[in-house]
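Handout, section 3.2

Students often ask what a structure token actually looks like in practice. Rather than define it abstractly, here is a full record for Maker777. The first block is the sequence as you would receive it.
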Amino acid sequence: MYISIFDASSSKPQCDLYCFNILKPLLTHASETRTRIENCESSVHDKETRIVNLETELESQNSYGSFIDQPTERSSRMEQLELDQWSIYSPTDSTYSVSCAAEISKLQEQIAALEAHAVTESSVLHIKDNWIETLKIELERCRSDNQPELSSSTGSTTTDSVSCVGEISEIELLRAQIAALNKEIEALRQTKLSFRVRRKESGDVNDKSIMNCDSFENSSSVQQIYIPGVGNCSVLCDSLTAGSGWTVIQRRFDGSGDFYKNWQEYSDGFGSLDGEFFIGLEKIHGMTKSLRYELMIVLTDFHGAEVYATYDNFRLGSEAERYKLKSLGAYNGTAGDSLVNSLDASFTTYDHDHDMWGGNCAKYYNSGWWFKWDTYSNLNGVYANEEESYRNGIWWWTWRNYGVAKTVQMMIRPWKK
């Protein structure tokens, strides 16, 4: 006898549970997929908004075009400058020096303006490059992580690519404009140098615009400059030690010079520019009173080790102020700061005692220097021919205490940011 064990009313809940367990993973995956698609669409929308903002920024940069998008005007200006330089060059003309100096000053102002503009354009270009690269990386990561879901967003992706191509074209245009500016700057520099060469050949050494070695690019020789309050004088330039533009104010290397000098000799300067020398306190004051200078001190020992110290705002007072060390600025270097103790000190020699000690520091240390009660440096001391610890020698306390240096050079140049 067959007996049915199937009861439809009692088996329905079991069937529902069985079907739910089968469908649950599929429903979960569908929910997760929908969430990922929504996140991706939101991310793509954000990228489109950022690219639109970037395009707006680049369009605003076109305001620079009023200056740099006029090649014809620049060419005409260069031709006019070339004609001007020949019309100005007339050694027999009584107004020659004044006109030429004014023209050089005008060229310097134009070069400074062009250099500043080129720096601005380079900065903008660098920012745009970084921004585009960031957008590209983020878009590529979004595409690779969500490739299936992005199949329905091809239109947006194409828009992103077109926008990026447009940004790259703008960047290439900016690069071309910067290259043109650099060419114009170099042409102006060459024009300025040609003026100076012609002045020198004509025997005119009264160019008051040449006040330091910064006017002689890559020069490491003796040059003629004009120092306010002093006049025309010869100086030694150095472009080998730490870049171009340095005017050497003191040099020691073989002991051939005697640096135990009186007040007048330190004021005027002494020695030979092809040997050991001190340029003179009056010349240093004349140079640093009208322009901000940086000071660099380079020392070497008898084993060839070299250290340096720089100060970014070096300035001396006048003779009436006893050539006070009025400013040093910020220190940087490897030698340690052994000059800060001399800040605000007057210069002292054996015949003019301006230190704060009861005796005469110049006599005690056999030199002339900016002494207070004592000193942490003595670069004008007695030269020693071998390594030793010598109080009266050439030393820099934060480097080797009283250990003497084999060579020392002090030099200055106009401070640049």
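Discussion prompt for tutorial groups: The domain at 222-414 is CATH 3.90.215.10 (Gamma Fibrinogen; Chain A, domain 1). How would you have guessed this from the sequence alone?
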